[in-house]
Amino acid sequence: MRILVTGGAGFIGSAIVDALTGSGHEVRSLDALVPQAHGPEAAARQSDPRLTIGDVRDRDLLRRLLAGVDAVCHQAASVGHGLDPSDAPMFVTNNDLGTAVLLAEMYAAGIRRLVLASSMVVYGEGRYRCTTHGIVRPGPRRDTDIAAGRFEPPCPRCDAALTWEHVTEDAPLDPRSTYAATKVAQEHLAAAWARQCDGEVWAMRYHNVYGPRMPRDTPYAGVASIFRSSLAAGNAPRVMEDGHQTRDFVHVHDVAEANVRALTAPAPDGGFAAVNVCSGTPHTVGDFAQALSDAVGGPDPVVIGGARAADVRHVVASPDRAADLLGFRARVDFADGVTAFATDAQRTTATALS
Q1: CA-CA distance, 328 to 204, in Å (whole number)?
Q2: Cβ(284)–Cβ(208) under 8 Å?
Q3: CA 338 to chain centroid
């Protein structure tokens, strides 16, 4: 197959490009090489013959790149929680307008297969059960509770303690940040496109991805990158809340494999399907920080309390739908993956150099 990968020089996109090439596919890559994600290493990637430097919103450029393409793997996006509401135009134009332009040009080119990078953030909080009221959706956590060290979300009906469960793809969408809202919008745009033109869309809901080429020292970074940067500077990882918030960490090589499978899988029922790209195995943020510290012989993590705006408490996913529909299960063991990540090459962003 001939495949266009947008965001193909990025953290996840470059792993997908390598996996596709290794599987015998012909790959075209498009990336804007924005400084916050690429930094000085961008110059080295400009010599990649598969890469075209440009913006996914450039319709003329897309028309040239889409000629003769069989499918598109859309990874280009602005990612992260953001700093404050002033980031909203950046997220919306890059993520939603960019997706809309891409879909329009795919339609014009007669291309009907899309694999879309979505995210766990579309769920907001994960899945919770109350012993009295069954499955419930907790509301946003209260600042007063976080300040008092009460991090577990209570039942919205009786205020009792909740038990988290693996979240499945049929969970309600509940975005709690600007970035999350744009990922939901991307899914809806892609689903509408599939219905209108008999297209095929796999929306890949990535959970906490880590691994080589992850950008470091950027205000949009996730905890894996933040902890790694702290240890590289000789400092203890600083873990927010009480360290017991639960996540689903998945290695970027597994994420790349999931995308390769989606690009070549039978069409999803109804033309659109969302799948969790995850390990299905829970680990706390404190677990990750400790494992990373142990791998480099660094200082033990320090728990500092508090919480970042839009952080949620527990999100661990069910891997069953991806296994059933794509034959995909994550293979990289948590301990092995974190140990490798401790010395994996990372990307120094322009933010880190300023």
Answers
A1: 12
A2: no
A3: 17
Contact call for residues 18 and 77 (beta carbons, < 8 A): no
Nearest to 100 by CA among 189, 204, 205: 189
**Of 236, 217, 210, the residue nearest 290 (C-alpha):** 236
The dihedral of CA 22, 266, 100, 254: what is its sign?
negative
- CA-to-CA distance for 279 and 250, rounded, in angstroms? 6
Of how many residues is the chain composed? 354
Q: What pLDDT does 354 receive? A: 31
How many Cβ atoms from other residues are within 10 Å of residue 333's Cβ? 12
For residue 156, give both structure tokens: 């919205």
Dihedral angle at the C-alpha atoms of 284, 340, 207, 314, nearest 10 degrees?
Answer: 0
Q: Which two tokens stand for residue 2?
A: 């001939």
Which residues, given as ranges, of the chain have pLDDT below 50?
350-354
Predicted local confidence at residue 292, as pLDDT: 97
pTM for this structure? 0.94
**Taking the alpha carbons of 34, 309, 185, 136 in that order, is the dihedral positive or negative?**
positive
Q: Is 8 helix (H, G, I), strand (E, B) or coil?
A: coil
Burial classification of residue 23, based on how many CB atoms lie within 10 Å of its CB (0-12 exposed, 13-18 middle, 19 or more buried): middle
Q: What is the pLDDT of residue 216?
A: 83
| In the chain, alpha helices (H) | 11-22, 35-38, 42-45, 59-66, 88-91, 98-109, 143-147, 178-197, 223-232, 252-264, 285-296, 320-326, 334-341, 350-353
Q: Tokens 């500092």 sit at which residue?
A: 304
Q: What is the rounded distance in angstroms from the CA atom of residue 69 to the CA atom of residue 81?
A: 33
Provide the CB-side half-sphere exposure for 317 (13 A, CA).
31
Per the structure block, which two tokens stand in for 166? 């693996």
**Nearest alpha-carbon partner for 27 in 46, 13, 40:** 13
Widest CA span of the chain, in angstroms? 60
Cα 81 from Cα 334, distance rounded (Å):
24
